[in-house]
Amino acid sequence: MGNEEGVFGSDPARRRRIMDASGLVLVSGSGYTSRVQSAARFLGPSPHVLARSDGELPHLLRCIAVTAWLCSCSTAPGEPTFPSTPPGLPTAEAVSPPTQPSPTPTRDALCDAASFAVAVDVGHTPARPGAVSARGQTEYAFNLRIGSEVHRRLLSEGYAKSFLINEAGTDVSLDDRGRAARDGGASLFLSLHHDSVQPSYLSRWTVDGQHHAYSDRFHGYSVFTSRSSPNWAESMEVAKRLGHELRARNHTPTLHHAEQISGERRPLLDADLGVYAFDGLAVLKSSTIPAVLLECGVLVNRDEEIELDSPMFRAEIVDAIAATVEDACERRDAVTVPTRPAASTAQ
Fold first, then answer.
1. Are 303 and 219 in contact (CB under 8 A)?
2. Distance (Å) of CA 286 to CA 125, 226, 267
3. How many other β-carbons are positioned within 10 Å of the β-carbon of residue 130?
């Protein structure tokens, strides 16, 4: 991570003892930031701490400091032995009764999550499954899985009126999807898909005796809005926020939809965030609420298909969507204090 020595000390053996005793795991990998996960035994059932960048290390210092003390008390290899109270901390007899902490602001203080309904649209159907992955899996199966994960996450965070569109996989038209969002009283429409490429970019390979198409040329997500929508300005804010949240989790956009070839030529509204215009797309253009479509990744890319099948990778997408929904809810409920008119000077 670049500063392990400053946190754990310069002695490699001591750093190893601290990491072993606390359950600290340092992970570095292509496409991800360095991460630190703390599962220190002394914290018992406390939730794990996940640092996605060096900037989050201060949140771990307390855990690391106590863990380092535990390790410093060990006189021999194996389980450390240590006194019942860390140096500098009061004994149980000297501890005063805890005071009631100040209440922490919750999401409800910023937005009314219970009234903010998200229509999570599962793209395609079993009969019209969309793209086919590099290993022969249907896009619809990927869409349904992550759509269900997003829906569960939103319910767990208090967005109780959120719902899935076409969970049963019936043959629903694009217009019917928009109608379902309106009838359900949705505040935000999110259509979930997985991407492919134009046929000219495809090659063939054989997997388990089956021939499949693939292309490793492009990878990454893309977000679409329609400038024909009556709520395009708000939709664009949601799209940009979603791109920002995905980038913050080290997901990168694909720019192949802006290629000047047949079937593409989509206007690229924000290259850094991967936001495109798809003005004629029915589920977006007729929406009376903010509406975006997310292509989570490129299924025909052989490596990205594996990532999209990974629970950890999908959890990052779900996290990004949840953060985007929270932002949209907060902006909806933001109160603008009107400016008082200037006093008249007329007599």
1. yes
2. 21, 9, 19
3. 18
> Would you say the C-alpha torsion 72, 74, 78, 80 has a positive or negative sign?
negative
**Long-range interactions of 100-104: CB distance < 8 A, separation 24+:** none
C-alpha span between 193 and 259 (Å, rounded): 20
Region class of 158: left (phi > 0), else alpha (psi between -120 and 50), else beta? left
Helix (H) or strand (E) holding 142: helix 139-156
Dist. CA 142–CA 119, nearest whole Å: 18
Range name among 45-49, 176-180, 235-239 with the lowest pLDDT average? 45-49
Q: What is the pLDDT of residues 142-182, one digit of tens each?
A: 999 999 999 999 999 999 999 999 999 998 998 899 999 99
Kindly give, in sequence order, each residue whose CB lies less than 8 Å from that of residue 50, ignoring residues fewer than 6 positions away.
Answer: 35, 36, 37
What distance in Å separates the CA atoms of residue 217 and residue 211, rounded to the nearest whole number? 19
d(CA 275, CA 125): 25
* Residues 49, 60 contacting (CB under 8 angstroms): yes
177 CB contacts (<8 Å, ≥6 apart)? 121, 165, 166, 191, 283
Question: How many CA atoms lie within 13 Å of 156's alpha carbon, on the beta-carbon side?
Answer: 9
Identify the three-state secondary structure at position 213: strand
Nearest to 285 by CA among 230, 211, 333, 339: 230
Q: Which residues contact 285 (CB under 8 A, 6 or more apart)?
A: 226, 228, 229, 279
User: How many residues comprise the chain?
Assistant: 347
Regarding pTM above 0.70, the answer is no
